[in-house]
Design a protein that fits this description.
Blueprint lengths: L1 E6 L3 H17 L4 E2 L7 E8 L5 H9 L8 E12 L4 E10 L1 H15 L14 E6 L8 H9 L6 E4 L1 E8 L2 E9 L5
Antiparallel strand pairs: 1-3, 1-8, 2-6, 4-5, 4-7, 5-6, 8-9
Amino acid sequence: MRLFTAVTLGTTIEARVAAELKRLRQLANHARFVRVEGIHLTLVFLGEVEASRLPAIREALASVGPRHAPFTLSVGGGGTFGTPTHPRVLWADVHGETDALKTLQADTAEQLQPLGFESEYRDYAPHLTLARSHTSSGDPALLQCVKALSGTDLGQGRVDRLVLFESRGPEYHRVVEVPLTRTA
């Protein structure tokens, strides 16, 4: 099983991202754009995991939810990763209660670390991946997408659960959902 932990952003953001992706595809027709139903913010990538390890992972994640209250994030604007002239990844910026998101990510990573899962983030920088270049050399057309994203508001979403996803090719399946239940 190929697993990762993440949070989702809700239907408002999904709908606005879907509309925006239609517009962006016209600007970078060679890029691989994400599937709207797969939109998420990755917290910890676990990689290939044997199914027999799932109970321990479930138990570790169950301890996270009661320590965190739901919070709100917003998405808009964007940027790229890669070289300035040939970026490899297009992303939308995440705003709002990002400190709560960073704390959730750190706690999730801490709970999974004793099971042998190391976080790939030293300094977690939340972003919503929208597209990737088809080639490792990057895609200059993604720069036009960044200009198109400038000043965009893709909405707000309430984060109220931590999700363990299984990646099966381009599709993501929910394996475990842990509600964030701490009250203020």
